[in-house]
């Protein structure tokens, strides 16, 4: 293998960067006072030197014995882009990179690189990392699969008679190129701009790359050199049959013209779909499915794609899958933006769906819908299920923003991890997130923002499992019509270090008169106190008389004004500004009777019914620290605000830093409830990971400390009382999972009641 920096890689393309996510994230960061290149300090020399902020490769294009890689420059608090170097890592299998041994190191300031002399037919999984002048590296693992193979060229304006083996003699159709490649172990088909009305069967080992200029006179840019695959009525455009070798579709615009059925149908295959626009199909945009047999699987990535205005789901996924979607936009589809129904785990194997830096907006059903069914197969090792949502913007969908439905029974052999982090859920017609858990797992929502969702609650937790514990940490939950968080059915809820502002009802609601199943810890804000919830170190206040930022929702749009829904504890100034939660707009207003705001400059025409806005007397968003100061209560010890920690606005603005994932509880047996009296009662805590040592356990009965024994068995903590627990008492078990790093806000605490005389 050898490495060269290309002078003019005419047969390769760097691909465009999807602008939607970059603009959205950049606007939000700047709007809330966070500028990645500058931070909060006036001098870069005063800053702590952090690792680079880098999103990995932008695209990877394969050709004959080579791959061409490109990326956007990394951002850093000290090192300028022209001094940044990059390390490129190759692996022949997904996730098997040796990050101590790069395959290539670039010169300073490079944003492209070509690696040559690679064997054709052998897959390459590419990861790029940035290195600053201090030698610090980011830690992304965003991989791009590619398959070096010979190239065939296609140009619909070419003269007849070309054999496709050179850019000077291209074939006229993609189907011709596929036909020429049948029998070969693989091929990379490079396609010039044009409209191709074809129905394609793309076999394993084949890749098609669009976006090249006519005549292949330069590198590909699909945003400029539009390469259109147009569908025929009631037909699918591109079908991928089962296979084990990689299939790549990159740089195409799929146009269904509201007549074609689906853009892409993939069955039991390894795929990469990138830099594609998929719109106006009568049914789904793409469908990825697997058979229910023991070998059925769909694996791969979807990067930098847009799914818009399709009659069904933008993306539909079924079966045993391991897929990652990054930098994708799913908007205005007739059903869900993305639907995973069902996800079928398999005993002894890992099923995964991961989304990062995606926008899911204005879809006509649930924005993101995932249903997890009972695992297939048999054996002693659990099925591993991983759902990861990080940095996604879920806005204005016509049902729940996101819904995750755990459908298998409590005793199923499944290791479930669901982590929703650093994401924003705005203005969805029902809740921002609905979690329906019929079985326990690592169910975590952290560092997220929930604003103006219009259902009964911003976060809805349901399910048939008494052991399923949903944890919500360091979130902003605001401007909902009623509850901030609602626990229905029989599960458990733990809410810590969250800020509740301007919701219409109780911050947390649980129908539990004994206040055992739901806990609020170290939370604060403005609004109504929780119900059916145990409160520890938390306080909400009435801020009606205070001059402070507050949230309002638009309930009517008039010619020159809007009518808003406002809480009793929100005070309106005579004049002020409506600030978009994403930070890119400030609209001045004058207050009129009847909660009507007179707007300037015809701005009412651009305001959406149901949208949420921040009321402020200044036309810039207050810094997050100032917002906390004006809307939260102090901690019990008086040392700063109760919630939430950190200097940055929760949601996608936190993406510049790694999420905090402390050791935590997945399930506790027995679940908080009424227990029989007696001696040697035992509790089993199933943990997210094994602690470094046995934690110090505090067991109290009606506030009095009781003797207790604790021991670890793998990732299970066993706690045993060493004395009689008298009838009618209230038991609390609390402990710090990471005493060397965690503050009081991470303290784990549960309570039980001991049955009174005559109770069962």
Distance between the termini: 73 Å
- pLDDT averaged residue by residue: 89
Question: Sheet with the most strands?
Answer: 15 strands, parallel
In the predicted model, the low-confidence regions spanning at least 5 consecutive residues are: 1-47
Number of helices: 3
Number of strands: 64
Structural domain tally: 5
The dominant shape is globular
How large is the radius of gyration? 28 Å
Helix content: under 10%
Q: Strand-residue fraction?
A: 35-45%
Neighbour order of strands in the largest sheet:
9-10-13-16-19-22-25-28-31-34-37-40-43-46-48
Structural class: mainly beta
Characterise the protein shown here:
The structure is a single chain. By secondary structure, the protein is mainly β. It has five domains: 2-146, Immunoglobulin-like; 288-452, no CATH class; 456-541 and 633-647, no CATH class; 550-621, Thrombin, subunit H, CATH 2.40.10; 665-754, Immunoglobulin-like (Sandwich), CATH 2.60.40. It has three helices and 64 strands. The strands form eight sheets. It has a 15-stranded parallel sheet with strand order 9-10-13-16-19-22-25-28-31-34-37-40-43-46-48, covered by helices on one side. A hairpin with a 3-residue loop joins strand 50 (550-557) and strand 51. The chain is globular, with a radius of gyration of 28 Å. The termini are far apart.
């Amino acid at each position: 293998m050898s490495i060269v920096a290309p002078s003019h890689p005419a047969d390769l393309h760097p691909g465009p960067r999807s602008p939607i996510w970059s603009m959205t994230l950049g606007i939000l960061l700047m709007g809330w006072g966070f500028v990645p290149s500058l931070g909060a300090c006036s001098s870069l020399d005063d800053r702590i030197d952090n690792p680079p902020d880098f999103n990995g490769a932008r695209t990877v294009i394969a050709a004959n014995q080579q791959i061409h890689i490109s990326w956007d420059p990394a951002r850093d608090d000290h090192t300028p882009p022209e001094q940044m170097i990059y390390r490129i890592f190759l692996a022949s299998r997904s996730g098997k990179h040796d990050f101590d041994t790069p395959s290539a190191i670039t010169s300073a300031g490079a944003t492209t690189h070509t690696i040559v002399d690679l064997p054709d037919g052998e897959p390459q999984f590419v990861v790029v990392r940035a290195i600053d002048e201090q030698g610090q590296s980011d830690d992304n693992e965003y991989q791009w699969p590619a398959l070096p193979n010979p190239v065939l060229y296609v140009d619909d304006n070419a003269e007849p008679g070309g054999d496709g083996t050179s850019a000077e003699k291209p074939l006229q159709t993609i189907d011709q190129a596929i036909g020429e490649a049948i029998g070969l172990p693989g091929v990379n088909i490079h396609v010039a701009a044009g409209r191709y009305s074809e129905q394609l069967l793309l076999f394993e080992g084949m890749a098609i790359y669009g976006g090249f200029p006519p005549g292949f006179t330069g590198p590909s840019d699909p945003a400029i050199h539009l390469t259109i695959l147009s569908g025929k009525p009631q037909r699918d455009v591109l079908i991928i049959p089962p296979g084990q070798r990689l299939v790549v579709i990159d740089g195409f615009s799929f146009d269904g013209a509201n007549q074609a059925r689906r853009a892409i149908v993939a069955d039991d295959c390894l795929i990469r779909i990138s830099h594609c626009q998929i719109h106006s199909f009568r049914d789904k945009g793409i469908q990825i499915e697997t058979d229910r047999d023991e070998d059925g699987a769909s694996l791969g990535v979807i990067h930098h794609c847009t799914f818009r205005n399709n009659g069904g789901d933008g993306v539909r996924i079924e079966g045993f899958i391991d897929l990652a979607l990054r930098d994708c936009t799913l908007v205005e589809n007739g059903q869900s933006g993305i639907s995973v129904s069902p996800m079928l785990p398999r005993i002894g194997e890992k099923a995964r769906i991961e989304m990062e830096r995606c926008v899911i907006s204005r879809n006509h059903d649930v924005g993101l819908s995932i249903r997890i069914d009972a695992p297939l197969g048999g054996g002693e090792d659990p099925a591993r299920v991983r759902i990861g949502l990080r940095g996604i913007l879920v806005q204005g969908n016509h049902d729940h923003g996101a819904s995750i439905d755990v459908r298998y029974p409590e005793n199923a052999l499944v290791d479930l991890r669901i982590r929703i982090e650093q994401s924003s859920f705005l203005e969805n017609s029902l809740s921002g997130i609905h979690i329906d858990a019929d079985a326990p797992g690592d169910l975590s929502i952290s560092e997220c923002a929930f604003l103006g969702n219009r259902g009964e609650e911003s976060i809805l937790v349901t399910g048939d499992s008494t052991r399923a514990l949903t944890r919500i940490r360091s979130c902003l939950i605001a401007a909902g019509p009623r509850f901030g968080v609602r626990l229905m059915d029989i599960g458990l809820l733990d809410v810590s270090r969250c800020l509740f502002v301007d919701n219409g009802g109780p911050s947390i609601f649980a129908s539990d008169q004994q206040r055992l199943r739901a806990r609020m810890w170290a939370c604060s804000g403005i609004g109504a106190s929780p119900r059916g919830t145990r409160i520890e170190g938390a306080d909400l206040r009435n801020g009606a008389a205070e001059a402070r930022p507050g949230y309002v929702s638009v309930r009517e749009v008039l010619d020159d004004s809007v009518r808003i829904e406002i809480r009793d504890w929100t005070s309106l100034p005579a004049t002020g500004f409506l600030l978009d939660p994403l930070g890119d707009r400030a609209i001045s207003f004058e207050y009129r009777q009847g909660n009507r705001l007179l707007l300037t400059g015809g701005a009412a025409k651009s305001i959406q019914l149901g949208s949420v806005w921040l009321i402020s007397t200044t036309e810039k968003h207050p810094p997050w620290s100032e917002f906390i100061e004006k809307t939260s209560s102090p901690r019990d010890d008086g040392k700063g605000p109760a919630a939430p920690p950190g200097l940055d606005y929760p949601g996608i603005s936190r993406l510049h830093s790694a999420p905090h994932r402390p050791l935590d509880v997945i399930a506790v047996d027995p679940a908080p409830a009424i227990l029989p009296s007696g001696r040697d009662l035992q509790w089993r805590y199933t943990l997210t990971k094994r602690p470094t040592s046995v934690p110090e356990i505090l067991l109290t009965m009606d506030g009095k400390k009781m003797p207790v024994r604790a021991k670890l068995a793998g990732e299970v903590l066993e706690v045993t009382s060493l004395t009689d627990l008298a009838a009618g008492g209230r038991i609390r078990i609390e402990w710090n999972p990471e005493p060397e790093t965690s503050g009081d806000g991470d303290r784990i605490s549960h309570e039980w009641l001991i049955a009174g005389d005559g109770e069962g």
